[in-house]
Amino acid sequence: MKIAIIHYWLVNMRGGEKVLEALCELYPEADIFTHVYIPEKISAKINRHTIRTTFIQHLPWAKTHYAYYLPLMPLALEALDLTAYDLIISSESGPAKGIIPRPDAVHICYTHSPMRYAWDMFHTYFGHSNRFKRMIYHVLMHKLRIWDSHSALRVDAFVANSRFVQQRINKYYRRESVVIHPPVDLQRFSPGDDNAVDDYYLWLGEMTPYKRPLDAVQAFNRNGKALIMVGSGTEHENLKQKASGNIRFLSALDEAEICRLMQRCKALLYTGTEDFGIIPVEVMACGRPVIAHASGGALDSVLDGQTGLLYPLQSSRGLNQAIDAFEKIPHWDSDFIRRHSLHFERQQFIHKIQHFIQQQLARQSRVYEKQSD
Fold first, then answer.
1. Contact (Cβ atoms closer than 8 angstroms) between residue 205 and residue 272
2. Based on the number of CB atoms within 10 Å of its own CB, is 110 exposed (0-12), middle (13-18) or buried (19 or more)?
3. Residue 280 sits in which domain range?
4. pTM above 0.85, yes or no
């Protein structure tokens, strides 16, 4: 059986690429197709595979400005010749699922999310652009949405990385899906000493508007408690200017330093709405609770009142209300929090996705046996 894996682009190692690594482990002989590929930015586990690119790779400045070629990516996917492949797994966040499979091939789409910038988060991504750019984006995204929904018909089965993404798939593609959470490499994280927990809260991630780091800054400007914010991004300098002296900003930390901050924090603050969100699981693997907005993937990973608190009002006021409630709870069971995080461990993902794919292959085989009879 020949296997192809379609991934949107290979330009860094983030959550989507961690899923791809697990698929590479499961199917070491698979060929990988992608729009843009920068080998030195990608792990050895992925680089060991045969990797082919679409024509986007050869366009000017594609490695640094690939997003500008988004309107051409549907055409690039449809130009791929995949007639030799029996099983095709598309890894969808940017355009990936829109390939044209052989009629008897099985096409499974693991969906990190339908393209957020094309669907429900269009205004978050492009709302601050000038009027001319917004007009261009409206036209381009209108066309991309039509193609995106129609190309969903070429997929035999969808897998969502959370219940939140499952809702998106149902809303925009009108397709059913199963939920298999992405793999989290939890062996890198371990609980610290409960007696060594420091008196600070932790915010960790990319400082961009949709992750709502401003909620944390405004909340702690009011409550005066200690907050450490770790990360970089377009909002970093703006946030530093607005923050009071009880808020520290750190960046360029190595993995060991970040792990120590996780182990010793009172709790992680998770203010945005994420498709799944790996950081809360990593913090729980360190035995620490999470205070998260009750939306997105946090609804799958955080057990309200047991491994953290979920708050309904997505604002600085709602966050402060959650912190007040959190501080009234005298003790958090770090061992239970750690055990819960193991539900999202890497081998769990590999076992579940392998079982699902085998089911789909068996189902396709039965279909063709009936047709031949």
1. yes
2. buried
3. 186-344
4. yes
